[in-house]
Amino acid sequence: GDSVTQMEGPVTLSEEAFLTINCTYTATGYPSLFWYVQYPGEGLQLLLKATKADDKGSNKGFEATYRKETTSFHLEKGSVQVSDSAVYFCALRRADSWGKFQFGAGTQVVVTP
Amino acid sequence: ETGVTQSPTHLIKTRGQQVTLRCSSQSGHNTVSWYQQALGQGPQFIFQYYREEENGRGNFPPRFSGLQFPNYSSELNVNALELDDSALYLCASSLSSGGAEAFFGQGTRLTVV
User: Fold this and answer.
1) Percentage helix, strand, coil, to 5, in chain B?
2) Which residues are paired to A4 by β-bridges?
């Protein structure tokens, strides 16, 4: 079955540091890939997405590139802020089951001043 | 703000009881999905509804059931509550497309005692 594996947290960084969160997936066909962010006590917010191989999703300084050959969708940000502290979820969704996301376990990111 | 609202925000129930959670979808979205998120884990797909019919289900027992109404609002019903049902329940609405963004509500925190 489909699965998403992302690096375990917590990831603790200083402000303005570079952030990478690794995400790899297993799925048949060509799923769409997503990064969602969850702040304490809240639901999930879409951060970025990519719907086909070599697409790059970007938003709020975050980027991720859909790599079919390595089945990866790593999240990066060049300079994090304290406000980026949250839990980040990598997810995939297949075209034949559009309502169903397969999520990773989440990676907590803590940014200190 | 996503336009997806869930009620109630918090709920405490006793083992063996039944519970109904509600979700109001984003306007124009014809698909609603429900997820269970245990503490410290990623959301797990329960089921999705498209045009008032269930058309996808995750690995959850039949005591988890749902409804979607003509206005695309939705309910999640859980019978015979167990302690392990304690979790954050998330509703997501989207269009019927694999690449379409899904919008999540803020969730209902269910505690079973």
Assistant:
1) 5, 50, 45
2) A25
Residue B102 distance to chain A (closest CA, Å): 8
One-letter amino acid of B54: E
Hey, what's the torsion of the CAs at A65, A82, A60, A12, to 10 degrees?
A: 0
> Looking at beta carbons, which residues of chain B come within 8 Å of A31?
98
Chain B residues with CB-CB distance to A102 below 8 A: 45
Q: Is the dihedral of CA A44, A46, A52, A55 positive or negative?
A: negative
Rounded CA separation A97/A32 (Å): 11
Q: Percent of chain A scored above 70 by pLDDT?
A: 99
Quickly state the pLDDT bin for B2 (edges 50, 70, 90).
low
H or E element in which residue A37 lies: strand A32-38
User: pLDDT tens-digit profile of B14-27?
Assistant: 999 999 999 998 88
**Which among B110, B89, B85 is positioned nearest to B12, based on CA atoms?**
B110
Provide the shortest C-alpha distance from residue B17 to chain A (in Å): 25
For the segment B24-37, what is each residue's pLDDT rounded down to a tens digit? 988 888 889 999 99
| pLDDT for the residue numbered A46 | 93
